[in-house]
């Protein structure tokens, strides 16, 4: 019977496997920190677009029927829209990633690996979501037009004009 080599703890710490695992952990930590920094920068940019950027004011025609509809409350609130769209997407990602982990790696893949894979999936989705919201807000502020209930909500003062100006009204109070 052959004798098995005896290893010391100091030998295990310097083994190539442990070095590669430490390198992988440090890469994952740097990746996580970069993702957090990127989301912080994008969040600040989105807040600046929403709070500082002034929308472009367009003129209107006095008799414009497309702007004279009555105001109606939202049928779907913003919070409900965000909860269902983001929550539904995250739920589907979680189910999908857990199924993939079980099928490809077996049921004992490890919680840390599953959480990291899900974090990467959520990060990619959330990055696209923030970029999309930023572009939509920027385009709406630049090229947007008045809502169909503009006259009902803004109540522009057209008494100082005879509404015959061929350029439309650019100012209202």
Automatic annotation (TrEMBL):
Ranges annotated as spanning the membrane: 28-49, 75-95, 115-139
SUPFAM superfamilies per record: Acid phosphatase/Vanadium-dependent haloperoxidase
Record-level GO BP terms: phospholipid dephosphorylation; phospholipid metabolic process; signal transduction
GO molecular function annotations of the record: phosphatidate phosphatase activity
Keywords linked to the UniProt accession: Membrane, Transmembrane, Transmembrane helix
Keyword Isomerase part of the UniProt annotation: no
Gene Ontology CC entries for this record: plasma membrane
Name recorded for this polypeptide: Phosphatidic acid phosphatase type 2/haloperoxidase domain-containing protein
